[in-house]
Amino acid sequence: MLIKNNLPLPFRKNSTLLLGAVLFFASCATPTFAVNKDMVQLQTQIQQLQDAVARLQQSNDERMGVMKDLVQQSADAVNRMSTNLDTLQKHMQVQQEAQNGKIDQVSGQIQSLNDSLDELKTRLARLEKLTQDIQNQQQSMSANMQNQPGGSSVSPGSAPPMDSGQPAPSTTPPAPVVRKGGKPSAGVPMSVAPSIAPLPTASLPPTPATSDPSAPPADELYKTALGDYMSAKYGLAASEFGDVTKYYPENPLSGNAFYYQAEIEYRAGQYPAAVKNYDKVLEQYPDNNKVPVSHLHKGQALIALKQNDAGVRELRALIQRFPNSPEAMSARSKLNGMGIAPTPRRTGAQ
Hints:
By secondary structure, the protein is mainly α. 68% of the residues lie in helices and 1% in strands.
C-alpha cells in the first residue's frame, strides 16, 4: 500500500494490473503442480503394477513349462508302459499258442499210439483164437486116432504076447493104404478103414457183416487208410476211411474212421463238415477212445466258426466228462486264453 501510494497515478494503475496478473497466475499455478504430482504417483503405481503382473506372468509361464514337461514325461512313460504291455501280451499269446500246439501234437501222438495199441490187441486176439483152434484140432486128431478099430488092444510101446516060441497072430489088422483125399484102397474092407474126421478150420474173430461181399476186411481197410493218413495223403485216406464207414458201419473201427475224416476236414478248414463227423463219433460210438479228442476238436471248430457259446459248452462238457485227460488240459488252456472260466460259476442262492 505504501508503494502504491507513493507511485504516480499511471504506475499505480499498472501495478494494480500487474498484481492482479501475478495473483491470477499464482492461483492457476498451484493446482497444476498438485495435479502433476498425483499423475506422477499414479503412473508410478501403474508401472509397479505392470511390473508385478509381468513377474507373475513370467512365473506362471515357467510353472506351466515345468508342468508341461512333467505331463509330457508322464505321457511318454504311459506310452512306453502300454508298448511293453502289448509286447508282453503278444509274447504270452505266442507262448500260449505254442503250448496249445504242443498239447495238440502230444494228443495226436497219444491217439496214434492208441490206434496202434488197438491194432495190436486185435492181432493178439486173432493169434490167441488161432492158437486155441490149433489146440482143438490136435485134440480132435488124437481122439480120432484113439477111436480107430483095435487101437485100444495094444498100447503104445508094448510088445505082442509070445506062445511056445511062435509069434502069436496079430490081432491088429494091417494098416490100410490111404489114397490122396482120405479114401482107402480097394483091397481094404470099409469096416477096417479108419474113420478120419474133417479137420476144423481156424476161425477169425467175428466181424460185422457187410453189404458188399467183395469188400476187403475192415481191419485191412482201416490199416491202409491210417497209413495213408500218417503219410499226409489226406485225400486218399478220406476215401478209404469212407469205405470203412460205408461197408462196416457197426464195426468199432468206423468210429475211428469218422474221427479221422473229421480231422482231415478240420485241417482243410471245412469246420461244418468236421463238426458233423465229430458228432457221429460222439453219438454213434460213445465208448470209442476218440470221444475226448472229438469233444476238444469239435469245440475248437465251433469257436473257429464264431459260435463261441456252443464251443465253450463243448469244451466244458469235455472237462466235466474226462477231467484228467490230456484233452481236458488243452480245453482248460483254450478257455483260459479266451478269458473264460473252465467251469461255469455258480451263483449264490437267492
